[in-house]
Amino acid sequence: MINKKRLIKLTQELIRINSENPPGKEAKIGAFIKSAMRKAGLKVIKTYTFASGRPNIIGILKGKGSKGALLLSPHIDTVPAGKNWKHNPFGASLEGDKLFGRGATDCKGNLAVCLEVINSLIENKAKLNRDLIIAATVDEETGSKEGMIKLLGKKILNPDFALILDSDDFDCIVAQKGLIHFKVKLFGKKAHGAYPQRGINAIERGAEVILELKNFKFDFEPHPYLKAPTVNIGKICGGEKVNIVADFCEFEVDVRFLPGMDAREILRQVKKIVRAKIKKFSIDVDSIQQPYEISKDNPLVACLLDADRKFSLHGSEGATVITFFKKFNIPAVATGFGQGGCAHIADEYVKISSLFRGAQALEKFIKVFDKG
């Protein structure tokens, strides 16, 4: 049975441990999770560290092995707390049904739910057919390179199914946009600011390129759970001095695209737009994550929807780690019990009632899916 008081305490203890990323302070929270798993009664607990002080903690509740393994995975890092909080971001203060603190929604509330469900299953001496794998991973907030990507790539994690606990409001994420992050560097020609016609102003050409990118009409098929593709210019710099024609401009672009679209074709179109405005340029791709979708008829999805009527099908405009499972043909879904619109904000909070109901729903899902 889910213990509400223990769930609240777990969430508060996790929030009070600073695990901001950057810089990547996950060692202390990793030690706490390992201890919590041991106290719950897990016999198999392993640590995998790919960068100093950044442990991925994996616990396994062994089943009979008669069915494929199920992975549950929340992440343990948070974005930096930042400023303008009314509540102490690491105080874990409780006001009515709201528990405040950095990571309350993203993703320490979900992490606490996962740990509490393990407590309940072991206390009730649950006999599972499947191995239940719990992976508390680092580095999700900056791309998962020291976490989920390496755990999958090195076959440390190789489940048959994955449920990623990194969402809000009981959303069942069955589709997700892909992303492309790239830098556009434009090279013009210097001249005196009084004679701009003698030079090539890279900033002005950059402004023209940005306008073209923002107005670009993508070729795509509408998706039932996702909005249209987007372009965001997140950073820009260039030039040296106000009275010098700028011979350099650089800006960074975030493109989110739909299943069925091709990242290479998008980049080809970007190059065409840039080339039409300036001769000398380069485009450096920082990262590409492919879009993802799973059938609503997949048993992973069906059992989740059966576990609680509050679960509902949604798409994710942002990136969760479910996209990394596509390469390995592992069915993956994301869900979670955070408060919608609270991730990454000042005075982030989660509702205790959502965590408690979420823990009950997750335990029920595990039992139902285990029989399927």
CATH class label of the largest domain: Alpha Beta
Number of strands: 16
**Backbone shape:** elongated
What is the helix tally?
8
- Mean pLDDT across all amino acids: 97
- Strand line-up of the largest beta sheet: 1-2-6-3-7-15
**Uncertain segments:** none
Query: What pattern of helices and strands is seen along the backbone?
Result: HHEEEEEHEHEEEHEEHEEHEEEH
CATH fold group of the largest domain? Aminopeptidase
Task: Please estimate the helix content.
Answer: 25-40%
Structural class: alpha/beta
Query: Going by CATH, what is the homologous superfamily of the largest domain?
Result: Zn peptidases
* Cα radius of gyration in angstroms: 23 Å
Kindly estimate the percentage of residues that lie in beta strands according to DSSP: 15-25%
Question: The biggest beta sheet, please?
Answer: 6 strands, mixed
Distance between the termini: 22 Å
Total number of domains? 2
